[in-house]
């Protein structure tokens, strides 16, 4: 069929009602958002957004309501989509934005693609990776992996991806989203090492839309966390990483076929783990218990 691209959509969307199909690759994926309210009667008040790209640049795509339970788990980072009968709207101005792995990629920030069950009913097709042709010009997923030795030099709120061997994982804890609120965030602390420093990555992992992964993080698993934010705790200058709205977490058993397996720093980490004695590492691991962070001073 006749295709369009994201750059052409941005230039012509105001003058059109119907749009040609789009062929895009998913580069980033947000957590699933529930926006239900007691007074509003909606069957499936869900929303998730993705950053998708083709040869012309990157744009946000929003998945609405009953399409979320149907498609959210099938739409992975790296998935290629053919979209037809979608809607185009002006961008929501207060949305968070992931940091693209390719800093040269053009971002179309004024509009977003809306996938709805009606008005119009979107047609979504997932193209298997083996059928994706190079001449389509779809960008590859790129990452911003850092090692532990590089972390201390990074500025506050810098976005990065990490891989490490888990040496500690704390119990799940809750924090109120707002004061006096009945809504809570669920999170846990973890430590991971990568062999480049004596210090571990300190990771504050909030429950994303991957409960099957969040609940099974345990010592000695290979942990990948993407789109993490660097947090500097003053005055101690303690540096830790926290998840963002677009973070994805993967553990041993979930890595196969993920785009990051081709990354050079991931390959270096795997080589390092092969040189380690599993028995020695197991002796250093800890699970559960209360983890006060930041730690009180020694003279407290």
From TrEMBL:
Q: Which Pfam families would you find in this protein's record?
A: RADX
Single Gene Ontology MF annotation:
single-stranded DNA binding
Its transmembrane ranges are none
Which protein is depicted?
RADX protein
Q: Which source organism does the UniProt entry give?
A: Vidua macroura (Pin-tailed whydah)
């Amino acid at each position: 069929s006749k295709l369009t691209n994201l750059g052409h959509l941005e230039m012509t969307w105001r003058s059109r009602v119907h749009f040609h199909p789009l062929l895009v690759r998913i580069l980033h994926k947000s957590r699933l958002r529930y926006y239900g309210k007691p007074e509003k009667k909606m069957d499936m008040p869900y929303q998730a957004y993705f950053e998708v790209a083709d040869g012309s640049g990157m744009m946000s795509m929003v998945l609405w309501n009953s399409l979320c339970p149907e498609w959210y788990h099938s739409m992975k980072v790296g998935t290629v989509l053919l979209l037809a009968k979608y809607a185009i709207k002006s961008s929501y101005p207060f949305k968070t934005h992931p940091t693209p792995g390719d800093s040269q990629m053009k971002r179309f920030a004024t509009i977003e693609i809306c996938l709805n069950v009606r008005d119009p009913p979107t047609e979504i097709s997932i193209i298997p990776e083996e059928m994706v042709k190079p001449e389509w010009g779809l960008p590859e997923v790129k990452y911003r992996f850092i090692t532990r030795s590089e972390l201390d030099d990074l500025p506050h709120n810098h976005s990065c991806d990490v891989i490490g061997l888990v040496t500690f994982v704390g119990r799940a804890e809750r924090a109120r989203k707002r004061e006096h609120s009945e809504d809570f965030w669920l999170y846990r602390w973890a430590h991971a090492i990568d062999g480049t420093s004596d210090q571990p990555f300190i990771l504050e992992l909030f429950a994303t839309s991957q409960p099957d992964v969040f609940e099974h993080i345990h010592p000695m698993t290979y942990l990948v966390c993407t789109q993490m934010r660097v947090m500097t705790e003053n005055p101690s200058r303690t540096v830790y990483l926290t998840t963002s709205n677009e973070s994805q977490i993967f553990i041993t058993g979930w890595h196969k076929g993920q785009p990051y397996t081709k990354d050079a720093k991931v390959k270096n980490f795997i080589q390092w783990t092969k040189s380690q004695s599993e028995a020695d590492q197991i002796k250093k691991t800890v699970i559960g218990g209360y983890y006060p962070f930041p730690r009180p001073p020694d003279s407290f």
